[in-house]
Design a protein that fits this description.
Belongs to the glycosyl hydrolase 20 family. With 534 residues, this protein is α/β, with parallel strands linked by helices. The chain is built from 18 helices and 19 strands. The protein has helices spanning 7-13, 47-64, 86-89, 110-123, 168-180, 205-208, 237-249, 265-270, 298-314, 336-345, 350-367, 397-404, 414-417, 440-444, 456-459, 477-484, 487-496, 504-520; strands at 26-35, 42-44, 70-71, 77-81, 94-98, 103-107, 140-148, 154-160, 185-189, 191-192, 195-196, 212-213, 231-232, 253-257, 319-321, 371-375, 389-392, 409-411, 462-469. The strands form four sheets. The protein has an eight-stranded parallel beta sheet. A seven-stranded mixed beta sheet has the order 1-7-5-6-4-2-3. A two-stranded antiparallel ribbon has the order 10-11. It is elongated. The protein starts with 6 loop residues before the first helix and ends in a 14-residue tail after the last helix. Bound molecules: ligand TNX. Residues 325-326, 375, 393, 418, 420, 432, 470, 472 line the site of ligand TNX.
């Protein structure tokens, strides 16, 4: 069921040759085409341009078998930094001119060139994405002038590696697929009830104990029907560095998430003393008991401080996500130390206790020169630091509310952006349902600023569009690919393309080529049913 389609079949699907996803801001087709020749080389004007050009050449050498050397000698393909492009293209945009005689790509920054290179790759036949040499193809692209820049600076995707663990190769494969579609933030959900996935040297049991579940482990099997003796895994700090570098080469930032104070069963299994002193039998919305750490235990802040310090040395990105979602406040209701805290700090209820915890986290994160991101539940209390960023997941409403309070906002509403929801087809594997079906067309229809009734200043606080795959029901990479693709292709266009240029019918005409690229990238995407059924 998860098998991707063969290229032969796809020829029927792909009606328009070399169509772009996401659609650039401005495309003017010319006449004639540029055909790659065996002696073509790439001319660059600076070390920065040469570095990006080399990435382009390396991919094409594999699929075309052509030598494509990169240097400063005059050549028909020119890739260069040009400060004058910045006025029109900003930091991430580029200008591209393809004629039968030459290709000229310019941008003010390395990112801009990188995005332009993705466009160039997409202008070639989809087999340019092949990881093996493909013979019998004319490597050409139609003449075209493109001026491009993204609608949003934040174009994100989250992978939950706690519920199930996928590993390095899978993450790299995702980063490749994101980069080809100009996405730039990978949000790594590295902790939850079902496993802690990042080595923290000052608290070793987080992974020694918290990364493994099953009948032979302290952390029990957490998913319905699981019979593992031992299941799990984690990333060493060396592996994290390798992934961060791999992403950086693709101009993708990685935002780690350590979810707290709820969703902490793995943490409290490793360090039971982090729990409230008096247990309570209540459960979280997901039915998990005793998975909330205590905000009244001072030593917990020391632990969080140690974790954030280590995390900040591994991830250069300015944002760290600390969760804050679905906290079962009742878990705190019987603990005398919580009652003392409430009296001391004049906290009126248990929501105010979460707010107290969130504000302590803000302090810790800013001490380590990072900015905090949290799920929209952190908004309760209304007294957060203005630069704390809210990720809206239950809908766009809490995002608009946050923008009205002056917070930066990332929009990831479940009904459009949660790829763990079903596609709604008859062949749907078991999955989440709480946000309804999320057909690819539903994702495509998302406009992050629509309906907010925001002033221009508030609108400017909406940083972009973000998507997520939660993996309670997703056990391996192939199943994850099926859930993510092609919805991610649609989300990439939501986040990049100017709203007035977006049109579902037009997207469906360009879509076949992009599925073909997915195929060559080795992605087991879901084959969409005929258009009438989307
Ligand atoms: C809600 S989204 C959660 C996750 C679940 C997801 C399933 C969010 C912040 N919390 O823990 O995996 O729903 O769709």
């Amino acid at each position: 069921m998860f098998r991707s389609i063969s290229p032969v079949l796809l020829c029927g699907v792909a009606a328009v040759a070399q169509a772009q996803v996401p659609l650039p801001a401005s495309v003017q087709a010319g006449s004639g085409k540029f055909v790659l020749k065996a002696d073509d080389a790439i001319q660059t004007n600076s070390p920065v341009a040469a570095k990006e050009a080399e990435k382009f050449a390396a991919g094409l050498r594999t699929s075309t078998g052509l030598p494509l050397t990169v240097g400063t000698a005059q050549a028909r393909i020119r890739i260069g930094i040009d400060e004058s492009v910045r006025a029109a293209a900003g930091d991430e945009g580029y200008r591209l001119n393809v004629t039968p005689e030459q290709i000229q790509l310019t941008a003010a920054t390395a990112e801009g060139l990188y995005h332009g290179i993705q466009t160039l790759r997409q202008l070639l036949p989809p087999a340019a994405f092949s990881t093996q040499k493909v013979g019998g193809i004319e490597w050409s692209m139609g003449s075209v002038k493109i001026d491009d820049r993204p609608r949003f600076g934040w174009r994100g995707f989250m992978l939950d590696e706690s519920r199930h663990f996928f590993g390095m190769d899978y993450v790299k494969h995702l980063l490749d697929a994101m980069a080809a579609r100009k996405m730039n933030v990978f949000h790594w959900h590295l902790s939850d009830d079902d496993g802690w996935r990042i080595e923290i040297k000052s608290w070793p049991k987080l992974t020694e104990v918290g990364a493994w579940r099953g009948t032979e482990c302290a952390l029990p099997n957490t998913r319905e029907g699981e019979t593992h003796k031992r299941y799990g895994g984690f990333y060493t700090q060396e592996q994290i560095k390798e992934i961060v570098a791999y992403a950086a080469e693709r101009h993708i930032d990685i935002m780690p998430e350590l979810d707290m104070p709820g969703h902490c069963l793995a943490v409290v299994t490793a360090y039971p003393e982090t729990l409230p002193g008096t247990a309570d039998d209540s459960v979280s919305v997901q039915g998990v008991k005793s998975n909330v750490i205590s905000p009244a235990r001072e030593e917990n802040y020391k632990m969080v401080d140690d974790i954030i310090r280590e995390v900040a040395t591994l991830f250069p990105f300015q944002f760290i996500h600390v969760g804050g979602d679905e906290v079962n406040h009742n878990a705190w209701s019987k603990d005398p130390r919580i009652k003392e805290l409430m009296e001391r700090e004049n906290l009126k209820n248990l929501s105010a206790v979460q707010n107290y915890f969130t504000r302590r986290l803000e302090g810790i994160i800013s001490k380590h020169q990072r900015r905090m991101v949290g799920w929209n539940e952190i908004l309760g209390g209304g007294n957060l630091r203005p630069d704390t960023t809210v990720m809206a997941w239950t809908g766009t409403g809490p995002g608009f509310e946050a923008a009205k309070k002056g917070h930066p906002v990332i929009m990831a509403p479940g009904p459009y952006c949660y790829f763990d929801m079903g596609y709604g087809g008859p062949d749907e594997p078991k999955t989440h349902w709480w946000a309804g079906n999320v057909e690819t067309s539903k994702t495509y229809s998302f406009d992050p600023t629509a309906g907010g009734n925001l002033t221009p200043d508030q609108q400017a606080l909406i940083q972009g569009a973000h998507s997520a795959l939660w993996t309670e029901f997703v056990t391996d990479g192939e199943a994850a690919d099926y859930r993510i693709f092609p919805r991610l292709n649609a989300l990439a266009e939501v986040a990049w393309t100017p709203q007035e240029k977006r049109n579902w019918d037009d997207f469906t005409k360009r879509f076949g080529n992009d599925l073909e690229r997915l195929h060559y990238q080795g992605i087991a995407f879901r084959v969409p049913p005929p258009t009438a059924l989307w």
